[in-house]
Amino acid sequence: MKEIILIKTGEIALKGLNKSSFEDVLVKNTKWRLHSLGRFSFSKAQSTIYCEPQSEEIDLDEACRRVSHVFGIAAFSRARVAAKDFADICDQTLDFLGEELALSSTFKVEAKRADKSFPMKSPEICRELGARILARYPHLRVDVEQPEVLVMVEIREAAAYIHGRQQPGAGGIPVGTSGKAAILISGGIDSPVAGYMMAKRGLSLCGVHFASPPYTSERAKQKVIALMEKMAEYCGRMQLFVVPFTQIQEAIRDKCPEELFTIIMRRFMMRIASQVAQRQDCGALITGESVGQVASQTVKAIACTDAVAQLPVFRPVIGMDKREIIVIANQIDTFETSILPYEDCCTVFTPKHPRTRPRLDLVEAAEQTLETDKLIAEAIAGMELVEIKR
Ligand code: ATP
Ligand code: MG
């Protein structure tokens, strides 16, 4: 009993992109997500990608779950393969969808005949197969408007495929087709969501995390790794750069006015992330900032941090409420990890009264007391690379 996954790419997403290279990246990403389950072969025809397991033992439920997280897929179906022979199509349909039909009260058959050499036309396939289904399950009724079970028969070049309603895919465009960006990831709720949202627009990611041991613990770092492992379900292969930040934070604490501590610290994050990102061929930075959420996320504060960024900074959750961000965090299963109570370097040495409307000239003057280039060079030299596993 052969089953395959039929993957439909969103036609809208193809606008302005080279269709074939777009599909090649999509296939590569899907392969990466599936390869630990066993061998699959992939082929393309008529805006469908055929994803065929090469052994009966492969867990297709799990394969479908993984496929549902691959960006660039508009919809997909798990389908039964039948010979291009009407009797076999009927047998396979009753076997594959029988249980679902038995438990429902209405159905409808839809047929698509891409292979015009098949002797029956689509309306005839629908009529005859519908009659066979009714003969087997006399309690059923045909409902062409809102059927509970939709029986789809696709007659294509290689075979006939039978499936139920298509399942919605993750949407977006394939990771990698828009280039690469560095996500500043904190262990909080917002940054994993921000990374997910930009990966959906085709960016592949690397992570930059600032850690301040002993003020922040090994467990806080492990939490960030755990978050990125969850993100990898959608974002694919990633590397994480953990930057030692203690020395910089201590220097700012010792030499700069307390109320400017956070803004100066964030400017260091931007400078370092810019350098790491450029070395990794990234074209942009991503943060999980949202206007007004905390003192460092006012319009003035964001202007001060942007002033030192050497790449465009994408902030996909900038206009979202925490509640809206949490909906996505739950959907991508990062929320429970994000709320584990480990410290972040942003909560170390936080001023009692941070400036919410910092003046750039005063911030720059305060920074004159620091050996900025040396501090940055040392932090980058001490960076640790973590390969994110799925
Ligand atoms: P999050 O939920 O993502 O932690 P937040 O609401 O706690 O966000 P902040 O702590 O002010 O906000 O951080 C704003 C953004 O700065 C984060 O979304 C993230 O992109 C970046 N950031 C904060 N702390 C770190 C860190 N330790 N390492 C890397 N990036 C960080
Ligand atoms: Mg945070």
Detailed description of the structure:
The chain is of the alpha/beta class and 390 residues long. It contains 13 helices and 15 strands. It has helices at residues 19-34, 60-67, 86-102, 122-136, 190-200, 218-235, 246-255, 261-279, 299-306, 322-331, 335-338, 360-367, 372-381; strands at 3-9, 40-45, 48-53, 73-82, 106-113, 141-142, 149-155, 160-163, 167-171, 180-184, 204-211, 238-244, 284-286, 313-314, 384-388. Helix 6 links the parallel strand 11 (204-211) and strand 12. Helix 5 (190-200) runs parallel beside helix 6, helix 8 crosses helix 9 and helix 8 (261-279) crosses helix 13 (372-381). The protein binds adenosine-5'-triphosphate and magnesium ion. Magnesium ion binds next to loops.
Element order: H for helix, E for strand: EHEEHEHEHEEEEEHEHEHHEHEHHHHE
What coarse outline follows from CA principal-axis ratios? Answer: elongated
According to DSSP, the number of beta strands is 15
Give the cofactors and ligands: adenosine-5'-triphosphate, magnesium ion
Largest sheet: 9 strands, mixed
Query: What oligomerization state is this entry in?
Result: single chain
Query: Which structural class do the helices and strands define?
Result: alpha/beta
Q: Which segments are poorly predicted (pLDDT under 50) over 5 or more consecutive residues?
A: none
Strand portion, in percent?
15-25%
Question: What is the helix fraction of residues, given as a range?
Answer: 25-40%
Count of runs of 4 or more consecutive helical residues: 13
Mean pLDDT: 93
End-to-end span in angstroms? 30 Å
- Using only C-alpha atoms, the radius of gyration works out to 27 Å
